[in-house]
Amino acid sequence: MPDPSTLRALRRHGDDRLFLTGRKLREGAELMFFAYRAFTSDPDRILDEKGYGRAHHRTLHFIGRRPGISVAGLLDILGITKQSLARVLKPLVEDGLVDSVPGQKDRRQRLLTLTEEGRAFEGALSEAQRERLSRAFRAAGPEAVAGFRDVMALMIDEDARDDILSMVYDAPDAAE
Amino acid sequence: MPDPSTLRALRRHGDDRLFLTGRKLREGAELMFFAYRAFTSDPDRILDEKGYGRAHHRTLHFIGRRPGISVAGLLDILGITKQSLARVLKPLVEDGLVDSVPGQKDRRQRLLTLTEEGRAFEGALSEAQRERLSRAFRAAGPEAVAGFRDVMALMIDEDARDDILSMVYDAPDAAE
DNA sequence: AGTTTTATGTCAACGGTCCTGACATAAATC
DNA sequence: GATTTATGTCAGGACCGTTGACATAAAACT
After folding, report:
1. Residue A173: phi, psi to the nearest 5?
2. Which of A113, A159, B121, B151 has the CB geometry, 3.0–4.6 Å to A148, for a possible disulfide?
3. What Cα–Cα distance (Å) separates residue A125 from each residue in A25, A34, A91, B126, B152?
4. pLDDT tens, position by position, A49-100
């Protein structure tokens, strides 16, 4: 533990150990804002051309991640109402990007998968985002990425964290 | 450099050195989504009660950060059209949260500052967010926070990065 | 002095994304 | 047979962004 005079010196020089000041927190909040805006800007452009929005991207993404997911499962992940999802999902099915088939065990369910075309479009959307993330990760280095991952995970509500993280990390991982 | 068999072992065990795989990038993208959703959830609740939205929060935040900022300056930071800003800014001025005074040098400009009430409200909004950030930072530790900061900064478009970062880091910092 | 540019405000119309409330259907379950 | 569950859909509304067009006042230019 640094003694008081060391602390004062650190404060003057902005040492890493002082990372919980109001100032650092404000900087963190602003970085969240600007980074997220940049992060969503690439796919937004592609989506615009096709007349879709961010919600379509998220829907395609999580169906791609969990092929055969039910509508209820998707609602859980997205955290929206079924009416909101319907307006997004219906065009995707009609446009042939998503397949919706009744479940075999429970025929009330509609199990969702991407069509070939859906996979291709989702791939194009994610491509831009992965590009950006990849550039940032490469430039920052592995340790920074580990830190990024930790902070992001800890930002999630503690109640929901385990569920979300197990979903994020324990994936079918078909693309590798 | 690890030899091929070590690489295989690392892949199996998810070592830090492999941080640019498609899988890690997908995980990063999903963390961005879930963390940002959590990040905005707290102020959203407070704003709802007052009949405001996220846009009002951002507006109050950046006026608070740059007292005396012009409308054009604010538009630059927010990246929206003046019509969009007007719909947000007008109620804030009418409700007495923001002061709008003509510039002395250039009387066409409207220079914006938070009123006492505006500062209080903005403080309450940021409080929840700072709380969340603070918890995450404390639990993650200083090195993780440094990594988080690096990755977030590198996510921003290279053209805009310097401008944005100088705005984020070089602040009046009145609150300390 | 007169023209042009700049900073701002405002009206109208529209699109995307979310919401709540209400109702309908089919299938599973009790 | 009654109830619960999974899903779909209609109606209406809120917020937040857009574009286009026009207006005003002040600054800057020729």
Report:
1. 60, 45
2. B151
3. 32, 20, 17, 32, 20
4. 888 999 999 999 999 999 999 999 999 999 999 999 999 999 999 999 999 9
Compute the average pLDDT of residues B79-106. 95
In the predicted model, what is the mean pLDDT of chain A? 87
User: What is the CATH topology of the domain spanning B22-169?
Assistant: Arc Repressor Mutant, subunit A (1.10.10)
Residues of chain B in contact with residue A169, where contact means CB-CB under 8 angstroms, are 27
Nearest CB partner across the interface for A135, out of B29, B129, B154: B154
Q: Closest residue to D11 by CA to C1' distance?
A: A83
- For chain A, list the strands marked E by DSSP: 69-70, 98-102, 110-114
User: What's the pLDDT at A161?
Assistant: 92
> Can you name the CATH fold of A21-169?
Arc Repressor Mutant, subunit A (1.10.10)
Residue B149 to residues A32, A93, B37, B146: CA-CA distances in angstroms? Answer: 9, 40, 18, 5
Beta carbons within 8 Å of B127's beta carbon, 6+ residues apart: none
Residues lining strand C at under 7 Å (Cβ) are: A 47, 51-56, 58, 79-81, 83-84, 87-88, 105-108; B 70-73, 75, 82-83, 86, 89-90, 100, 106, 108-110
Backbone angles phi, psi at A66, to 5 degrees: -130, 70
Q: What are phi and psi of B104, to 5 degrees?
A: -80, -45
The closest CB to that of A155, out of B39, B138, B146, belongs to B39
Point out the residue among B32, B65, B149 whose CB comes nearest to the CB of A39: B32
Q: Is the CB of B88 under 7 A from strand D?
A: yes
